[in-house]
Structure formats: C-alpha cells, structure tokens
Amino acid sequence: MPCLVFYFFIIFITGRHTRTHATSNLTQMRMLLSRSFLAQARDTAALKTAIFKSVFVGVIIGLVFYDLANPSPPFYTVDPISGEALLTPGVQNLASAFFFFVMYCLMNNLEQIPAICLHQNLYRRELASYSYSAAPYWLVNCLYPLPLTLVTHIIWFVMSFYMCGFKQNLNYFMYFFWITFWTTVAAFYYAQGMAAGTQSAEVSFALFPMTFVFLTQFCGYSITIKNIPSGWKWASYISFPRWTFQGLMINDFGDRGVAGEEVLDQYAFDNFDKWNSMWIIFFSTGVCALTSYIFLRKPVSKLIHSPASLLVSETETLSEVGTATRAEVGSQDWLVLEEGEEGTDALDDSGMDTRPLLDTGTDRDTDMQQLSAMPMSHGCKVSFSQVEYKVTSRHTKAELHVLKGVSGYAEPGEICALMHQALVSE
Fold first, then answer.
1. Residue 389 backbone phi and psi in degrees, to 5
2. Short-list 369, 352, 248, CA closest to 299
3. Burial class (CB in 10 A: 0-12, 13-18, 19+), 422
4. Cβ pair 338, 309 in contact under 8 A
5. Residue 196: helix, strand or coil by DSSP?
C-alpha cells in the first residue's frame, strides 16, 4: 500500500495541465483533500459517534476476554474417553480473542458503505463537469479517512489489549497493533470498492454479509487450514483475514517453545514467518484499493453515453434549436433532448413540450440514473466588467467602495476571488 500511494503521488507531482482539466492532478488532489478534511471536521456528530463507539467496543472486548489472553502451559489435555489430545480452554480463549479482533476489523467498516454511496451522485456530477479526474478523487478517498481510522483504532485496541491481558512486550504489541490496523484499512477499501461497484447501499448491504461469512469461514479459526476440503483450499489463500489471524497466532505462540509449536501445528500455521503475513496484508490492501479505483472509473462510460444530451424542464421553452439548443434547467420533470434534434418540432402552439416525460413524478437524480447518462460539460468561461461594491461604515455612516471598476474573467475549473487592495497586501 505505501508503495502504491507513493507511485501515484509521484505521478501527481509530475502532472501538468491538460486540455481536459484546467488544473493539474496535484492541484485537484490538494483541493479534494482540503474539502474532505474540512467536511470531516465539521461533522462533529460523526466524530463523537466514532470516538464513543471505539471506547464502547474496547470496553466490551476487554470485559468478554478479561485476563484470558495469556494462557500458561501445558496447552493440551487428554480426553478421558477418546484419549485424543485437545487444546486447553486457555488456548481456545486466546484464539477466540484473536478471531474477535479480526472480525471487528472487518465489521467496523460496514457503516462506510452508505456514506460512499451517498457521495456517488456528487462525484458523477463533478466528474461530468471536468472538475477533477477519477484518480485524484480515488486517492483522496483512500488517504483522508486514515487519521481518524488510526485514532479510533488506538482507542479500542489499547483498551482491549490491556484488559484482555496480552503479553506485555513492545515488539508483541507493535506487531499486533499494526497488522490489525492494516486489516481495518484493507476492509475499508474493500467496502469502498463494493459500494463503488454496486452504487447502491441496499445491494452493498446484501453482499457484504455474504462475503464476510466467506472470508471469515476460511481464515483458519472455524475450520483449521488442514481440515478444509481440498476443493476449497483456494479460499483460504484469498481470505485476507486468514493471514491476520495466522500472523497473530504465530506472534503469540511462536516464542513459547515446543508447546507453542504444537499449537501452531494444530492450526497448520507452523513453518511460517509472521512478517510474511504482514506483507500479504499490505498486498491485500493494495488490491482492495485498486479494485475501488477500477469501479470508480466505471461511471465514465455512462457519462459519455449521451454526450450531447440536454436536460430540459417541462415548463421551459427552448431558447435556440438545432445543434446549439440550450435551455434553463428548472426543478420540474425532465426529458432528454439529443444534439441535432429540432426543439420546435416537439413544442405545441403554446410553447409546451408535448412529448411524454420520463417517469413523471420522480426526482432528477433518479431520472439521470435511469437514463444511464450524465451531460458532459467543460464548463463555461465567466467574464465580468466594471464591478462595483459598496458598504456603509457602522461608525461614520459613510459609503465605502470595496470594489470599484473591477474587470476580469475565469476559465472553467478556476477560482477567481474579488477583494479590496488592502486585503490583497495581507
């Protein structure tokens, strides 16, 4: 994941203005990143909820597994009836705690699906107007949640770690912390890709539990790796929670001597380096992020499906006809007028459009989804001349010229600010 982000960051640094967009990829990324952080900071209710949820989950995990996460040898007992060697309750409790940590890393991101789907219409609309390209938007959506994710992860992880009674060892703690954090990030990108691919919160909510059960079923806890049917062995390799669970087990039992090696052999986790699990999680994070990027680019084909389409209000008349057809977009029902279609042919004597509307009574966003098209636009050039603006002083009651005789223009994608010369100097 760090290599993937660094690669795209270098591309953005070296990016140049293109004929398609008025600004470089780096400028687009900076503006989107600033907007995302500002929106996140202003949503105080969501921030408070995230903090409260982290504290609550940390306490719950700590109470359920309180002081049960550091068993002592021997790790096996003999069944008096069958004579079979069984893992002690202490080992089973520790494995259950690891599995619960992994499950929460996955389920913690379920709430992100509605938010991602909610932003799809805005993203499609801004993409259609060439405000930015898909790559900067994707990278920003990968980066801006990380600080809050890290803070909330620290809260619930530290609380549950010390309440459960895991080993008080720095190397043990750091490995445990970072592999679960990157699993959370991978799960977030996985949810992001699912939401971007389906573009529907309802469909995503239906698919997520199915994939969640699939991923956790083959992680090595419910069914040990050696007991998975041969036809399903492949599922354990693509299940990224499996590598997190395996890394946590090796991190704990790997330095417990012969008894620990016997436990790892029981789970088929022996003869494996725990750091390989970390690299596999990094790779899985990159794959999930790349998948979300591929799905985010998917609307582009729909955006250019009807490149010359024009949304026209039922009650508005056309100002021109033919290839230069234009109309003001109102808030009524909508229809589509293709380029080259004579607008006067569809109007009656009173100037009203007589063609049937598309699903009369539905809102604009629903109609645009049914049309599977979004009007493409490079924007327009805005010019102004001899702009004046006056204010009245509260103290002297005199009129003051803030702006006087200001002229200029703004290209599509540019921001032009008008201000007093005293403010410019500051």
1. -145, 125
2. 369
3. exposed
4. yes
5. helix
3-state SS, 246-280, equals HHHHHHHHCCCHHHHHHHHHHCCCCCCCHHHHHHH
Distance CA(274)–CA(28), nearest Å, equals: 39
Cis before 412 (ω within 30): no
Distance CA 124, CA 173 (A): 43
Say if CB 290 and CB 4 are below 8 A apart: yes
Q: 3-class SS at 416?
A: coil
Torsion over CA: 369, 370, 371, 372 (sign) = positive
Q: For residue 10, which phi and psi values (nearest 5 degrees)?
A: -65, -40
CB distance 102 to 180 below 8 Å: yes
Q: For residues 141 and 382, what is the distance between their CA atoms, to the nearest angstrom?
A: 30
Give the predicted TM-score (pTM) of the model. 0.71
Cα separation, 254 vs 273, in Å, equals 9
3-state secondary structure of 104: helix
- Which residues, 6+ apart, have CB-to-CB distance to 332 below 8 Å? 313, 314, 315, 316
**335, β-bridge pairs:** 312
Residue type, 363: D
End-to-end CA distance of the chain: 41
Q: For every one of its 426 residues, what pLDDT tens digit does the chain have, with 9 covering 90 and above?
A: 554 554 455 455 444 444 467 778 888 888 899 998 998 899 899 899 999 999 999 999 999 999 888 888 888 777 777 767 788 888 889 999 999 999 999 888 777 788 777 777 778 778 777 778 888 888 888 899 999 999 999 999 999 999 999 988 899 999 999 999 999 999 999 888 888 888 778 888 888 878 888 888 888 888 888 888 888 889 989 999 999 999 999 999 988 888 888 888 888 898 888 999 999 999 999 898 888 888 887 544 444 433 333 343 333 333 333 333 333 333 333 333 333 333 344 444 444 444 443 344 444 444 444 433 455 555 677 888 888 888 888 888 888 878 888 888 887 767 778 776 665 555
- Beta-strand ranges (E) seen in 34-185 are 76-78, 85-87
Coil/strand/helix, residue 243? helix
Tell me how far apart the alpha carbons of residues 191 and 361 are, in angstroms, rounded to a whole number. Answer: 33
Nearest to 183 by CA among 283, 96, 276, 112: 283
Strands 310-313 and 85-87: unpaired
CA distance 210 to 208: 5
DSSP 8-state symbol, 414: -
